[in-house]
């Protein structure tokens, strides 16, 4: 708790009106790799409480589209279309595809994380599965040159996931933004320039 209260990113998030400190992870990656630009269609998976969606909506400034998906309810954000449900459910995916109406996506973001049980043998496969879902969705819906940012936990299945991403994107980097806690095995795969296969 003290760590949370004293955290520089928590303080900055409050003063900037962001819903969570997670915004600084995306902001750092965006500053380095120029991921979000006006006019884009962006799908934000595991979006609640909504800081990444807020960030993207502010940058799009009314030009483009943000669709936010989460298991949990999320208070509305101007300029963001919110869908509540499990991204692993066919029904949710069908609804999301209906919203896209055949239009390609420019950027897929996934900050999805399972509820952590503390048992690595349970948590790691769940986390990898969520990242795989995001990669598959990106493969089906990104246009040529599209980008993906996905949270992944280092451990079993991590190297395979990165190799899979390398087959589909021209550039794949693994990054740990400053706002990601040192003790967490969380890193982000930043995959750019999707090659339509
Ligand atoms: N990026 C968010 C932000 O900026 O506020 C924080 C995301 S939080 C770390 C991870 C989210 O992933 C949780 O809200 C959780 O409900 C969501 N999540 C986990 N599994 C999911 C699934 N199968 N489908 C949709 N959302 C999921």
Write up what this structure looks like.
- It contains seven helices and seven strands; from the N terminus they run H-H-H-E-H-E-E-H-E-H-E-H-E-E.
- It is α/β, with parallel strands linked by helices and 197 residues long.
- Strands 3-2-1-4-5-7-6 form a seven-stranded mixed beta sheet, with helices on both faces.
- The longest helix is centred in the middle third of the chain and has 22 residues, at 120-141.
- The protein is globular, with a radius of gyration of 16 Å.
- The structure holds S-adenosylmethionine.
- S-adenosylmethionine (SAM) is lined by residues 19-20, 22-23, 46-52, 69-72, 86-88, 111-114, 130.
Descriptive key words:
197 residues; alpha/beta; 7 helices; 40% helix; 25% strand
Q: Which percent range describes the beta-strand content?
A: 25-35%
Structural class: alpha/beta
**Spatial separation of the terminal alpha carbons:** 47 Å
Which series of helices and strands comes N to C? Answer: HHHEHEEHEHEHEE
> Spans of 5+ residues with little confidence (pLDDT < 50)?
none
Bound molecules: S-adenosylmethionine
Mean pLDDT: 95
Strands side by side in the biggest sheet: 3-2-1-4-5-7-6
Using the alpha-carbon principal axes, give the shape. Answer: globular
**Which range best describes the helical content: under 10%, 10-25%, 25-40%, 40-55%, 55-70% or over 70%?**
40-55%
Q: Please tally the β strands and state the result.
A: 7
Count every helix, treating DSSP H or I runs of 4 or more residues as helices: 7
What is the radius of gyration? 16 Å
Main sheet characteristics: 7 strands, mixed
């Amino acid at each position: 708790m003290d760590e949370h209260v004293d955290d520089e990113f928590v303080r900055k998030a409050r003063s900037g009106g962001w819903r969570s400190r997670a915004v600084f992870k995306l902001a750092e990656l965006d500053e380095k790799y120029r991921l979000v630009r006006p006019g884009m269609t962006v799908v934000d998976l595991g979006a609640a409480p909504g800081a990444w969606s807020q960030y993207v909506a502010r940058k799009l400034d009314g030009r483009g589209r943000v669709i936010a998906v989460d298991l949990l309810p999320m208070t509305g954000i101007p300029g963001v279309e919110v869908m509540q449900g499990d991204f692993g459910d066919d029904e949710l995916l069908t609804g999301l595809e209906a919203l896209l109406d055949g239009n390609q996506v420019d950027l897929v973001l996934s900050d999805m994380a399972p509820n952590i049980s503390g048992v690595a043998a349970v948590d790691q496969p769940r986390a990898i599965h969520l990242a795989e879902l995001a990669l598959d969705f990106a493969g089906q819906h990104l246009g040529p040159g599209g980008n993906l940012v996905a949270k992944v936990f280092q451990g079993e299945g991590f190297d395979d996931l990165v190799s899979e991403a390398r087959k589909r994107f021209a550039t794949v980097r693994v990054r740990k933004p400053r706002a990601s806690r040192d003790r967490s095995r969380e890193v982000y795969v930043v995959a750019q320039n999707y090659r339509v296969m």
